[in-house]
Amino acid sequence: MATKNLSDYNTATVPDASNMIFGIVVAEWNPQVTGALLEGCVSTLEKHGALPENIHVKRVPGSFELIYGARQMTLNGGYDAVIILGSVIRGETPHFDYICQGVTQGIARMNATNNIPVIYGLLTTENMQQALDRAGGRLGNKGDECAVVAIKMAKF
């Protein structure tokens, strides 16, 4: 369980993002969660100087499709960083394990082989409350954290 607020960071350590272009791929599944992640991500990018016209959002049906969406953005978009946002909540079948493992491996592979950082914003929780706690609830917003990571990695 996360023990820190995901939205808590030192603003002085975040580079200026005014000349950066970001791609965000967000899953439509669990929209209450992914919508909040997206809102946090976009607002944090803008807070650090990213222009609204330089933040491009694409939606995919579910979390597994984040891999394809991110890959297309790294190939075709001219982005400084790509952020994936999704939420997988454990259910009664092994589906959770397969999706989480597949997305994790797909994004890791892209980061090992591409020149554009792909930021991992997939919540993998046991229940909806845990997801909401990490999407603007009591533990902050993972979208904020992903935006900060994207800016820092784009500057890397």
**Number of helical segments with 4 or more residues:** 5
Largest sheet: 4 strands, parallel
Q: How much is the average pLDDT? A: 95
The total strand number stands at 6
The SSE order reads: EHEHEHEHEEH
Structure summarized in a few sentences:
With 156 residues, the protein is an alpha/beta fold. 43% of the residues lie in helices and 22% in strands.
Question: Descriptors for this entry?
Answer:
156 residues, alpha/beta, four-stranded parallel beta sheet, two-stranded antiparallel sheet
Structural overview:
Helix content is 43%, strand content 22%. The protein is an alpha/beta fold and 156 residues long. The chain has a four-stranded parallel beta sheet, sandwiched between helices. Strand 5 and strand 6 (140-141) form a beta hairpin. The chain is globular. It starts with 21 loop residues before the first strand and ends with a helix. The mean pLDDT is 95.
Q: What's the layout of helices and strands?
A:
Blueprint: E1 22-27, H1 31-47, E2 55-60, H2 66-76, E3 81-89, H3 95-113, E4 118-125, H4 128-133, E5 135-137, E6 140-141, H5 142-155
Parallel strand pairs: 1-2, 1-3, 3-4
Antiparallel strand pairs: 5-6
